[in-house]
Amino acid sequence: MLATSAQPPKQFKDAQRAQVSMLSSLEKRTLIWLAHCMPAWVNSDHLTALGLLSLIAAGICY
Predict the structure, then answer these.
(1) pLDDT confidence of 10, banded at 50, 70, 90?
(2) Model's pTM, two decimal places?
């Protein structure tokens, strides 16, 4: 029999993003532009699937 302990849920803590490279200002502007251009129906699962398909395609072409 497994014993489970009731632990209080952990609070979500926002991560700090440190942009310190030479291209950080360009990267930030590009990310904001991409976010504004992205259709509302696209979510993180769609982007993950796109990344996976791209990785598979790159592997096949290699």
Answers:
(1) confident
(2) 0.54
pLDDT mean across residues, the chain: 88
User: Is the distance from CB of 62 to CB of 54 less than 8 angstroms?
Assistant: no
Q: How far apart are the C-alpha atoms of 2 and 5, rounded to whole Å?
A: 10
- Rounded-to-integer distance, Cα 26 and Cα 21, Å: 10
The amino acid present at 10, given as its one-letter code, is K
CA-nearest of 19, 15, 41 to 30 is: 19
Q: What is the DSSP string of 2-45?
A: -----PPPPPP-PPP----STTHHHHHHHHHHHHHHS-TT--HH
